[in-house]
Amino acid sequence: MPVTSRTFRSGNSEAVRLPKEFAFGPGVEVEIDRKGDVVTISPKRKPVKEMLAKLRSLPKPASIGIRHEVEVPERPGL
Predict the structure, then answer these.
(1) Which of 29, 58, 64, 78 has an alpha carbon 20 to 30 Å from 2's alpha carbon atom?
(2) Which Pfam families does the record cross-reference, listed alphabetically (predicted)?
(3) DSSP designation for 60
(4) Number of folded domains that form the chain
(5) What is the separation of C-alpha 66 from the centre of its chain, rounded to a whole number of angstroms?
């Protein structure tokens, strides 16, 4: 549901106050994109390299389990 807000000056920039139901939380870096009259604000995504580095830093499992094959029942007519 759309909500109305107003722009205001903050130093040399124009700003808009986000109502709490649209807030990202403190310190969240956002990306701002404009296409014509539409401005989109979304949380900035981390680079793939950074995400892969975090995955690699996770602890390794002590052992790897073996997955048994699942028997799929015959389903005539599907």
Answers:
(1) 29
(2) MazE_antitoxin
(3) P
(4) 1
(5) 33
Range of the domain at 31: 7-56
Contact yes or no for 27/20 (Cβ under 8 A): no
**pLDDT tens digits, 10-30:** 999 999 999 989 999 999 999
In a domain, 26, yes or no: yes
Residues 6+ apart with CB under 8 A from 16: 5, 6, 7, 8
Confirm whether 30 is domain-assigned: yes
- What are the tokens at 33? 């994109």
42-52 burial, b at 16+ Cβ within 10 Å, e below that, comes to eeeeeeeeeee
The one-letter code for the residue type at 7 is T
Q: Which two tokens stand for residue 71?
A: 């028997």
In the three-class reduction of DSSP (H, G, I as helix; E, B as strand; rest coil), residue 54 is classed as helix
Identify whether 74 is part of a domain: no
